[in-house]
Amino acid sequence: MSDSKLILYPIDPIWCFEPTELANMLASIGLLGQAFLQKKEARNSHFYYAGENFLQLIEFVSSHFVRHLEIVDGELVETQISDSKNSCYISLELYQEPSFLGSALTQTPFCTNCRYVIEDWTNLVSDWYSGKENYVWHCPQCQTVSAIYALDWNKRNGFAKCSIDIWDIWLDEARPSKKLLIDLKRITDKEWTFLYYRI
Ligand SMILES: [Zn+2]
Q1: What is the mean pLDDT of the chain?
Q2: Number of domains into which the chain is organized
Q3: How many angstroms does the Cα of residue 107 sit away from the middle of ligand 1?
Q4: Which of 31, 90, 93, 127 is the most exposed place for a label (fewest CB within 10 A)?
Q5: Do 143 and 82 lie in a common domain?
Q6: CA distance 14 to 109
Q7: From the CA of 151, how far away is ligand 1's center (Å)?
Q8: 146 near 139, Cβ under 8 Å?
Q9: Statement to judge: residues 166 and 182 lie in one domain
Q10: 126: containing domain
């Protein structure tokens, strides 16, 4: 299993879903299949297989091969090769407070007003962590004042208290369909967007 994900998250960084209720709604539109336990995760995560409409709701432009390995008679053996789009799984993630959803490989963000490139974004994120409620960023080029959430992270990062993570999707391989984004808005009364995560 890979740690590359397509992450769907609400644009409102403070709002959070109730996971059982959201899971039922996402199962009813065919995004989520059966629930399963993923023991390696320590966070408050709820895992699901893909539902019957997964490949309509998530639009793939490409995919990759997944090699399945098992230990047979003490040796690691390749038992199967599959198409990654048929082996994705989904988790609903909850966080105590607005959280940085990107990874160490997140790219430099921009000022949305003048496109100033924020090279020292790791310092920006750590400053935000030390005082989230009052943190604002001042653009040194155009003097615009922005919340950290409002910067342009180029779909490589976002901030939220909850997310729908679709595992084993590499950068730009797939995106949520228009229908899924409309369904999410109808179900939650919130606008949603997405990012790509990889480590
Ligand atoms: Zn600016």
Answers
A1: 93
A2: 2
A3: 17
A4: 127
A5: no
A6: 21
A7: 10
A8: yes
A9: yes
A10: 108-152
